[in-house]
Design brief:
Deoxyribonuclease I, Chain A; Chitobiase, domain 2; alpha+beta
């Protein structure tokens, strides 16, 4: 059934099922564009919440599309500005309609809802990435570039999940989950961290790794991770002894583990710097007393000769830590070397190490290398350069390359994790 609603001086608005149809005049170039409220588009402004930081990016994306599509320039303001009668609301603003929605609904990361309530068109999201996705959906599906189109269809309510996995528990029998992820610094092509932090936070919440080796931790990543994860994870040496941002730091669950020792090893070929190095830490489980060490690195891609030097130094450090503390040692990193390379082969041999990709009892998504152009599907093939290796006194049960949960928009590397059984004395 279609119920017509007549608005004085305006085209007819029609409700059908749960959608609101707005009939526009035939000549879009000479006629005003009408939105669900029956008001002119030019009467609207775009309002975004101050938190989380970055929703202004979604607001300006919507603004830019409307300018390109309709030639209408709308004010873009924060919710600290006085309220207007007609508004696009992005995020958890201080408007009554926003407070009402968030009081009755729960929006998780990588989720969004688009809703129309009177003169308010609202986007509720779990973060900046999902808000941008909502804007993209509205613009591409409900405000398409169609010559002579005389009908815009906007949903009264639409909810979408972008995640494919929300909670991946530790494999039964395993003691520890180790993750490695390269999050792509801006200097090598990464976009604004505010567009990507929601993706990283969701995947950490989903997989709950005990310890994470993170590469290319530059710009604002450290502060944003702390904000989004609520302080549940701590960083090992986020800054080098020379007070430079450590590009290859380690994250660990601070409520579960104590940090016994930590340090930075600078590769001889590169000297003192904050990129080509090894960050290491020795940890103890607060409840069970089990200890282990973790090394995280990012090898050079300049030449295999240099990588061989990195391999030898990394293996020597691993053996020293294992001997000094009597603990298993895990290695994560972007090695910039394939499994068949001479450098990586020598690293495993000299350190008496195993690669969990090849030794895990179960391999998930093993046909994918995990490398890709940001925003595109990951490449197939086992020549992955991101590694999770370990001393041979631990047993890897599962190794997975993460392909879902929007990770193709996080970086040019997919995260990976492995679940291990630790040795008992």
């Amino acid at each position: 059934m279609i119920c017509p609603i007549t608005v004085r001086g305006m085209p007819t608005l029609l409700y059908q099922n749960n959608n609101l149809y707005i009939r526009k005049a035939n000549n879009i170039l000479n006629s005003p564009v009408i939105l669900p409220s029956g008001h002119l588009l030019s009467n609207f402004c775009i309002v975004y919440a101050a938190k989380p930081d970055g929703l202004d990016l979604a607001a300006h994306a919507l603004y830019s599309y409307i300018v390109a599509r309709f030639g209408v320039h709308l004010p873009v303001i924060t919710d600290a500005e006085p309220e207007s009668e007609c508004e696009f609301l992005i995020g958890k603003t201080n408007r009554e309609e926003s407070r009402k929605f968030y009081g009755q609904n729960n929006i998780s990361r990588l989720e969004y809802t688009v809703a129309c309530d009177g003169n308010k068109i609202m986007i509720f999201s779990g973060g900046v990435h999902s808000a941008m996705s909502a804007v993209e959906l509205i613009c591409s599906q409900y405000m398409p570039f169609e010559d002579g189109a005389n009908l815009i269809v906007l949903p009264k309510s639409l909810k979408k999940n972008l995640w494919s996995e929300k909670n991946k528990p530790l494999t039964p029998g395993a003691d520890l989950r180790v993750m490695s992820t390269n999050i792509l610094a801006r200097r090598w092509g990464g976009t604004d961290e505010r567009l990507r932090i929601e993706i990283l936070a969701h995947n950490i919440d989903c997989y709950k790794p005990d310890i994470i080796g993170v590469q290319e931790v530059a710009d604002r990543w450290t502060d944003m991770v702390r904000e989004y994860l609520g302080g549940r994870y701590e960083f090992v040496l986020p800054y080098t002894p020379e007070d430079k941002q450590n590009y290859s730091t380690i994250m660990y669950q601070k409520n579960k583990y104590s940090l016994i020792d930590s340090g930075v090893h600078y590769f001889k070929t590169h000297g003192v710097n904050n990129i080509r190095l090894i960050t290491y830490g020795v940890f103890e489980d607060k409840k069970r007393g089990l200890r282990f060490a973790h090394c995280n690195t990012h090898w050079s891609f300049d030449s295999e000769e240099i990588q061989i030097e990195h391999a030898i130094e990394g293996a020597e450090l691993s053996c020293r830590i294992a001997g000094e503390y009597g603990v298993p040692v895990f290695h994560t990193g972007d090695f910039n070397a394939t499994p068949e390379s001479e450098s990586y082969r020598r690293f495993l041999e000299a350190g008496d190490l195993q690669d969990a990709f090849f030794t895990a009892e179960r391999l998930v998504n093993g046909a994918y290398s995990g490398c890709h152009n940001p925003g595109s599907y990951t490449m197939r093939g086992k020549n992955n350069i991101d590694k999770i290796a370990a001393t041979k006194d631990v047993k890897p049960l599962v190794y997975e390359t993460v392909l879902g949960n929007e990770v193709i928009h996080l970086s040019d590397h997919c995260p990976r994790y492995a679940d291990f059984v630790l040795p008992r004395k």
